[in-house]
Write a structure and sequence with these properties.
This protein is of the alpha/beta class. It has 2 domains: 4-142, N-utilizing Substance Protein B Homolog, Chain A (Orthogonal Bundle); 220-434, Rossmann fold, CATH 3.40.50. It has helices at 4-18, 24-27, 42-57, 59-69, 81-94, 99-111, 114-117, 120-132, 134-142, 150-160, 162-172, 186-193, 231-235, 253-259, 272-285, 324-328, 331-350, 371-380, 391-394; strands at residues 178-182, 196-197, 203-205, 222-224, 243-246, 264-269, 290-293, 304-310, 352-362, 384-387, 407-409, 427-434. The protein is globular and about 75 Å long. It binds S-adenosylmethionine.
Length: 436
């Protein structure tokens, strides 16, 4: 039955992410365990990915709609039913699938498994009702009220206030644009690829074409990187021939920026697998960095002129691009990561030469990983001082800096009349100079 394998794969992936804690991107690599894509052709993989992505982006409201339709809740003996219902609901409410096809394929999918086969009638009824009451559920979806896990929304309200949190959540429900960092000539590439040049210099497209098919990819003229993610490496203001450490480097978006300045860059990461990706990316871009596989918290070397710490974090600023983050992270992750980040920060201080500098950044909206982390670092390391970011030099709007002069972006910033071209990832970055 055409379309069935893609729907089955999507339902499995949604379960692997929400129940198994897997990263969505990882589920779509050939090394995924379990591999849900075996035997699927490229079109089916793309369809499964788009269903799973939308389902995770709108999981809160989909679950809310299903709970309104399933008066008695999900049958306890068939919890796997939920994933098939979620995949089908994502298609009915948010994708251009014909209702009857989405319902029919979901019914066929649940009939394939002995544990769920007896509920085919229930699935049929629930999904038909969902399609009939589509407008009501779309109105519910518009509010954005259900699309962030309550614990995260509550934190953001405390940090950013009610109104901004609403805008953050609403932006996270949208499909993000594709941002490119070009080696040179952003205006030329924007024209060739049908995009725009942002004030910060990134090229922004709204295409859904596979990246590898876009002009300039194979020739290594640009790489994919959110506009906010492109700013921290620039804050380091690296000069040719300086010795620079990229402390958490893979897959190498920021290493590429640092290496393209002519600096001597060491790209360090704990993950040998991810460093293979970095090496392949640098190869395509015809750029060079020395690669080191090591745990940053125990790293030792001759002092560097400049260090970038793009620390591992909860990544709650990237939920637009990685909707799985909203459903796989938990409050204790913030505490665990904050401890690791502080250790890395102190190690970086130990290998910064007097007069040298550090840029510390995270793609997290949580102050414990950003603002608070820097304040604690400065208390522990009085030989460092903060240097406010120069927004004019970055071409960034004034709202990109916080009161301390650090970079702080939130997803609803960089608005655009064309909503397909609006928003940025949530990022935090601070510049710290070691006294000579
Ligand atoms: C936010 S990602 C880096 C993204 C990268 N800078 C870029 O722009 O493409 C964080 C990285 O930290 C690495 N990492 C996590 N713990 C580490 C540790 N203890 N030592 C070194 N690297 C670590 C992860 O493997 C991951 O690649």
């Amino acid at each position: 039955m055409p379309g069935l394998p893609a729907r089955l794969a999507a339902a499995h992936v949604i379960c692997d992410v929400v129940q198994g804690g897997h990263r969505l991107d990882e589920c779509f690599t050939p090394f995924a365990v379990p591999n849900r894509l075996a035997g699927l052709d490229a079109r089916d993989v793309a369809l499964a990915r788009s269903i799973a992505t939308v389902a995770l982006r709108r999981l809160g409201v989909i679950r809310r709609a299903l709970s309104l339709l399933l008066e008695k809740g999900l049958p306890r003996q068939a919890t796997r039913l939920e994933w098939a219902l979620i995949a089908a609901a994502a298609q009915i409410l948010f994708l251009d699938a014909a209702d009857h096809a989405a319902v029919d394929l979901a019914v066929r999918a649940v009939r394939l498994e002995p544990k769920t086969a007896g509920f085919a009638g229930l699935v049929n009824g629930v999904l038909r009702n969902l399609a009939r009451r589509r407008d009501e559920f779309l109105a519910l979806a518009e509010s954005g009220e259900f699309d962030a896990p309550p614990w995260l929304a509550q934190r953001w309200r405390r940090t950013y206030g009610e109104a901004e949190t609403k805008r953050i959540v609403q932006m996270q429900m949208r499909e993000p644009p594709l941002d490119l960092t070009t080696k040179s000539q952003p205006a030329f590439w924007a024209e060739r690829l049908g995009g725009v040049v942002l004030p910060t210099g990134s090229v922004r497209l709204s295409t859904r074409q596979p990246i590898v098919e876009l002009e300039g990819f194979a020739d290594g003229e640009w790489w994919v990187q959110d506009a906010a993610a492109a700013l921290p490496a620039r804050l380091l203001d690296v000069k040719p021939d300086e010795r620079v450490l990229d402390m958490c480097a893979a897959p190498g978006g920021k290493t590429a920026q640092l290496a393209s300045t002519g600096a001597r860059v060491t790209a360090l990461d704990r993950s040998a697998e991810r460093l293979k990706l970095l090496a392949a990316n640098l190869d395509r871009l015809k750029l060079h960095a020395d690669i080191a596989v090591a745990d940053a918290t125990g790293y030792s070397a001759q002092p560097f002129d400049a260090i970038l710490i793009d620390a591992p974090c909860t990544a709650t600023g990237t939920i637009r691009r990685h909707p799985d983050v909203a459903w796989t992270k938990k409050p204790s992750d913030i505490e665990t990561l904050a401890v690791l980040q502080a250790k890395m920060f102190d190690r970086a201080a130990a290998v910064t030469r007097p007069g040298g500098r550090i840029v510390y950044c995270v793609c997290s909206l949580e102050p414990e990983e950003g603002e608070t982390q820097v304040a604690a670092f400065l208390r522990r390391n009085p030989d460092f001082r903060r240097e406010p970011v120069d927004l004019a030099a970055l071409g960034a709007p004034s709202e990109f800096a916080n009161r301390d002069g650090d970079l702080r972006t939130t997803p609803q910033m960089l608005p655009n009349e064309d909503s397909r071209l609006a928003g940025v990832d949530g990022f935090f970055a601070a510049r710290l100079f070691r006294r000579p």
